[in-house]
Amino acid sequence: MVNFITNFNLFEVTVCCNVTHQLNADEQIDVIGGSSSIVLLGSNHGRIIHLKKDNDSYLVLGSFQLPNVKLLFSELVLDAVSSRSSVLCIAVNSNPIVDDPFCLLIAIATASKQLHICERRNGKIESLQKLITDSNISALSFARSTVCYASSGAYYIYNVATKSVISLFPFNPLLIQPQICSVGMEFLVSGMDGLLISVTEQGVSTRPPMLFSSLSIKAIVYSSSYVYLKSGEEISIIKRDQASTIFRFSFEESRLSQTLQVANAKGLCSLDGTIFVCSNSVLYQIQMITIEKQVDALFEQRKYDTAIHLYEEKLHQNYNSGCFANLIELKKKVAFKYIEEHKFENLTEILISAEVNPEEVVSQLALQTGNDLWERTAQLSDSQQFLTCYLQKIRDLPFIIPFHTSIDTLLLKLLTIRGTPEDVFSFENFRPHYPECIEFLQSFGYHNCAACLWLSAGENCKAWDIWKRLSYGELKDAAFNFENLVTVLPTVTERKLLIDIMTWLIPLAPEQFFKAIVDASMVDHETIKGIFNGDCKLLRVYLESIPTTKEVAKELCNIYIDSIVAGDLSYRHRFRRLLLEISTSDRALLYDRIPSECGVERLLCDISQTAADILCKVISTYHDYDAAELICSHYSSIQPDICLQLLKFLEESPVDYIESSMQSLLNCMGNAVDLEKIISALPESAALNQVWWFLFVILLFTTIF
To answer: Which GO terms describe its biological process (predicted)?
Structure first.
């Protein structure tokens, strides 16, 4: 059940019963017999003391005298003992090969140099075989169909089935007392010079002998993977090799697990697997220390892994809910010890396997680090790094569900200290305690991240309030990018909030945010106009960013005219373009409102003039070639020849204007004007490098089509 552990006691000697008051002055216990529940103690006066198990101790039920009987090994063979004289040894078959479970096979050695194989069935004993030996038998063991015995200074194997005797090896009876023990399918016997030798039922020793320190082995008992050896007042215990179903005796495969001291030890025996030993007046039990005591001792010795393995191995052999609970508690203790010792290598696995409450882990870490887990540092400490990795690893595990909010809150704090709080947005199902996290983030200056966290929590008003303060410079955060608000604005679904945002956001960067506002279909045109509250500049920018409807064009024209009247002529080009796009009737209505110094604009609104007349006057009267080009560009699709008229005037225009205007006009005409007319209209100063590409395209188009 347990592995060998150096310098660790696996067994203990406990007192079962003290029978001093039941013994006479010169009487003492010599042997032990019976069963694990009913123990019979044989004294040197031939008296038997009857004990019965009561919980963890034994009570004396009585005693009786058996004249002329000094030794009794088992109450089951009492009939055999009483029916035969001069019995030397008795052995009950420990592993009989019989079909009847109520049949008992017994080997009895008598003082007449005989070995009797008897069968006890239905309360009667019958002698099945008799073997004559060279001398009296001094030690005996019976298992399966084989009897191993010592006689005439040698060990022998007697096969009951074949009735054959195999001689094993000699020993000096003056130096050693022969001992035989059945171990599985082999016999363990004591040899010369402290040797323990294993032999099979065929009389073969298949492995090297084991050297025992004592030269005087008084008893050998086997039970539950351990061999118990009595030598003087010492009880030595040897561990059976777990890799095999039979016991192995070699220096590599067997090991001395422990030596126990019992004063005046005698009568070592195994009754139903329970090991007993006695002194002159006390019955002791040798038992394995409870696994709980073993674990406690290992824990004190800081052998944490071995202690855990002890419980795990026991559970593997026989699951027990109590043992499992002990294992979990042990892992928890070990984990906290590792935290105390700052050993984080395997800590996460232990904490997860024991499903330790993560809040307790944080408390222990805080206790060991002096509560500085949440202080700002240049880099994370080992404790903080461990806690970060640990929390990330467990946050999705089933047993963490009750602690999910606290774990995510702690994670955000740790990542904030590390300088990467934005990492939390990559977590699935991130659910921290938002107010606590926001406060912590802002205490470290991560205002933009705090706003994003509010937004993820559905608290849009709080998020935009932080962004407003960042936009106006009330808060500072290098991670804040004002332009990113363009992508966030369309996510606002509350009309009132959107209007509030637009009120302060648009004046800061109108061009950037008008498109996003237009896309917000929940805000109508009149509402947006109302937001500007008479700010013509913002209204103009807004109207210029939306599709030009008749109403929009009318409003824009009014704004442009008012600006021109106020002396701002920067919008004249836009105004002219807009005039060409609206209907002639609408243009006519604007004529009287346009100042007289804006002659080109008034010409565009004069519906009595043709396009050619307007072009001629724009060039000849106002010398405004930009306006002339705009007129040609507008009318080229319906009156392509108008461009030819402008080409003729280019000769009179400034030299630096000729090339750009010429190319623009040629592009406006495309293939709508006859090529010969174009060439004839070109100014004499026009160079080939100014028009060759246009001519090449026209010729190519004409050739293809």
So the answer is: autophagy; endosomal vesicle fusion
